[in-house]
Amino acid sequence: MKNSKKKISIIFLILFLISGISAQQKITMADGHLTFYVPDSDLIAIEKWDTQKIYIHKLEYTNDEPEDLHNLGFSPLLTEVLANDGYVIKEEHILEMIRNNDFSQSGTYSLEGNYYYDAYHKKVYHESFYDESYTKLFYDGVPIGESHYWTSTTKYRINSAPIANPFSCDIWLIVDNRIVNIGLWLNFSDLVLVPDIYPDLFRTDEKGDIYWKDEESRVEFYYRFMSDDYVNLPSKLRTLRETYDMVLETLTIID
Questions:
Q1: What is the pTM for the complete model shown?
Q2: Is the bond preceding residue 39 a cis peptide, omega within 30 degrees?
Q3: 227-236 burial, b for 16+ CB within 10 Å, e for fewer?
Q4: Residue 147 to residues 32, 114, 150: CA-CA distances in angstroms?
Q5: Of 59-68, 100-109, 145-154, which gets the smallest average pLDDT?
Q6: How many CA atoms lie within 13 A of 159 on its CB side?
Q7: What is the per-residue pLDDT across 203-238, written as a single tens digit (0 to 9) for each?
């Protein structure tokens, strides 16, 4: 991830050759300090939420609206940094926290909360999150954020239309004293089609309802999704993977 236009042009050329994607849409955030591209596809919605498409959800928290910084969805680590700074976003302090947080040791995401405390102060983890997908994101060698995927759990049948069957991704970044969230939300995913492709990952009950076979199978699907085997998946899931790759490859921060 670099600033130069030459670098971006090279990335686009690689994407043309490897994925066959012929057009992109540019997205700008953080008052022009952050840009990235997504595929120009009929399966992607940017301006208006469409539950049948991959919706590019954009959210920013700034120092202009400090009351929003009390958001309970933040990581306890981020909340602590904000509280210590009087709920003012001080980029250098958050970046230091991200750099020092080793998720494999802490079990805590840096920016988005992967758990909360119930009324008895018991730690409750978000079961829909794929901890296996947790990725610390770097820009010019500096850790500036994180990403992770989430989907329905083993409790819920995946052929439960019209109830959503999500398979989505959230990207969190610190840019220009802003907390930025880029969501790649696929609420009605193609998961209902996946049992025909990977029957080993699912079970069918006596009613004909389809569930993940177990948590290990749910995790195995994520690994297949992130492997070269993703090309075997239905169109929406393929496009989600290609969108995620393109966002990270084309991410540009402008000082």
A1: 0.89
A2: no
A3: eeeeeebeeb
A4: 21, 12, 10
A5: 59-68
A6: 14
A7: 999 999 999 999 999 999 999 999 999 999 999 999
